């Protein structure tokens, strides 16, 4: 489910608004789109895959996450290089990751099982 649209990275191209099959986003004249219909998200990852600025994070969950979920912590996700990770995994990222992490930081692991992570988070917070 869509969780983060980072305003600092967003280029206001509105690709997410146009690509979303369930019309989750609303365009804002001269501004960053807004997540207007969060519960309509089908977790298809299209917005994250098509975002050229890696400004979007879709959590691998088809239900809304609790407010205290680590998958809703924008600063932690940015520091870990998680925004745009789906885009990278499908081979669509053509530019380096924009990250505040130092260049010597290890790349994010490619062995993450997103579905198992979300199941574990849901069990531990229930």
TrEMBL record:
Residues of the signal peptide: none
InterPro entries, per the entry = 4Fe4S_Fe-S-bd, 4Fe4S_Fe_S_CS, Fe-S_Ferredoxin
Q: Which UniProt keywords apply?
A: 4Fe-4S, Iron, Iron-sulfur, Metal-binding
Stretches assigned to the 4Fe-4S ferredoxin-type domain:
1-30, 31-61
Recall the GO molecular function terms of this protein's record: 4 iron, 4 sulfur cluster binding; metal ion binding
Name the chain's protein.
NAD-dependent dihydropyrimidine dehydrogenase, PreA subunit
